[in-house]
């Protein structure tokens, strides 16, 4: 292991994972839903469908790499909660939000959440070969394809009620707009389908994943600026001048992973992947080595958000492996240096801060919640530990 890999492994096993292990809810299942900025745990915090899925993926992947039984035990613990409380056997799909005791709180179905269910279940199946988990993942895939996909526009939808009747997309629309199509949902459907296809070589899934890669190339990727467009109306018209730096660098390596799993590296797609990473390298890295958050109408929002830093390290290591250009590896190392200094929470019983501002003052947001889970930083650690560079 090189220096970066050694430090990342230490951060994972000595700091990140111990924080999450303390949140295991042995009374009601899964993990406790909220830890505030003050590090006080709310045992009655909500348990989100996205959060539950991300925790299941995290401990499944931890076991895959590190082979420690405590991680397998946690994965099984969360899987039981997933199949007994989160999955809607009557109407298909997973709920948006549960109460602390596992009872439904918000039964709407969001395609983004379904995708994370697939991502988690396919990873759990990888380590257990539990056919039930794969069957539920396939049901989620079929629900997305039959209820959450518009064949005319070739776009995945966003928000639906429990019965899969289309709703206004409140949950994944930001920046004061309501979007009918989002890059974020398409990115995580891509991520989920890639993981599912890696364990279930279904011809229909293969075709959908190939078409999704092409959707990124033809609809989402801006061939002039090399940014990904973010929010669209129902006809794929762009709604806002916005660049999301973290999503772009994350997309560069997730698209590359999809191409690997599909075995379909083509010049046009490979160039897209390379150009996305190069563009973020040129436009979004601050002088201190951190990654800015986003740019709206030419104004940069320069909070340093935890997941953006994590995904950027992976993205630039991936770019280095692809090109051999040392500037990407040095950028990844500087990002990690920044992250361990300013994003890793040095308080006793802390984990990673949500974000710091441009002056490195912490943003006072939750440490654990519906969106703040081990997924981004656990995955960052495991990706860096297991890559050969």
Output the helix-strand order: HEEEHHEEEHHEEEEHHEEHHEEEHHEH
CATH architecture: Alpha/alpha barrel
Instruction: State the CATH class.
Output: Mainly Alpha
Q: What fold name goes in the CATH topology slot?
A: Glycosyltransferase
Provide mean pLDDT, rounded: 98
- Describe the strand arrangement of the main beta sheet, using strand numbers: 3-4-5
Oligomer: single chain
Structural class: mainly alpha
Global outline: globular
Number of separate structural domains: 1
The residue ranges in which pLDDT falls below 50 over 5 or more consecutive positions are: none
Count the beta strands: 16
Termini Cα gap: 9 Å
The largest β sheet comes out as: 3 strands, antiparallel
- Rg over alpha carbons: 19 Å
């Amino acid at each position: 292991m090189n220096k970066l890999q050694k430090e990342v492994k230490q951060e994972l096993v000595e700091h990140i994972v111990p924080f999450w292990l303390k949140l295991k809810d042995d009374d009601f299942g899964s993990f406790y839903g909220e830890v505030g900025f003050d590090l006080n745990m709310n045992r009655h915090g909500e348990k989100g469908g996205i959060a539950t899925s991300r925790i299941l993926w995290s401990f499944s992947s931890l076991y895959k790499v590190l082979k420690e039984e405590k991680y397998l035990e946690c994965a099984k613990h969360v899987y039981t909660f997933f199949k007994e409380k989160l999955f809607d056997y009557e109407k298909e799909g997973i709920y948006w939000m549960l109460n602390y005791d596992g009872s439904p709180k918000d039964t709407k179905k969001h395609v983004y959440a379904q995708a994370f269910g697939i991502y988690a279940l396919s990873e759990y199946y990888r380590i257990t070969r539990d056919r039930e988990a794969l069957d539920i993942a396939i049901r989620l895939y079929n629900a997305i394809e039959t209820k959450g996909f518009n064949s005319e526009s070739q776009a995945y939808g966003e928000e639906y009620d429990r019965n899969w009747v289309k709703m206004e997309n409140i949950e994944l629309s930001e920046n004061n707009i309501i979007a009918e199509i989002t890059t974020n949902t398409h990115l995580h459907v891509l991520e989920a389908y890639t993981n599912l296809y890696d364990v279930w070589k279904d011809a229909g899934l293969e075709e959908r994943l190939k078409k999704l890669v092409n959707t990124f190339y033809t609809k989402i990727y801006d061939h002039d600026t090399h940014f990904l467009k973010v929010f669209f109306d129902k006809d794929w018209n762009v709604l806002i001048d916005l660049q999301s730096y973290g999503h772009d660098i994350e997309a560069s390596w997730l698209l590359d992973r999809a191409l690997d799993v599909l075995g379909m590296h083509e010049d046009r797609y490979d160039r897209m992947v390379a150009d996305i990473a190069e563009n973020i390298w040129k436009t979004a890295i601050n002088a201190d080595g951190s990654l800015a958050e986003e740019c709206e109408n030419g104004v940069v929002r320069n909070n340093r958000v935890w997941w953006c830093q994590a995904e950027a390290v992976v993205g630039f290591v991936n770019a280095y492996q692809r090109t051999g250009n040392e500037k990407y590896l040095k950028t990844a190392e500087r990002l990690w240096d920044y992250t361990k200094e300013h994003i890793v929470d040095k308080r006793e019983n802390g984990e990673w801060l949500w974000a710091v501002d441009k002056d490195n003052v912490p943003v006072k947001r939750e440490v654990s919640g519906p969106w703040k889970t081990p997924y981004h930083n656990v995955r960052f650690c495991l990706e860096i530990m297991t890559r050969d560079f």
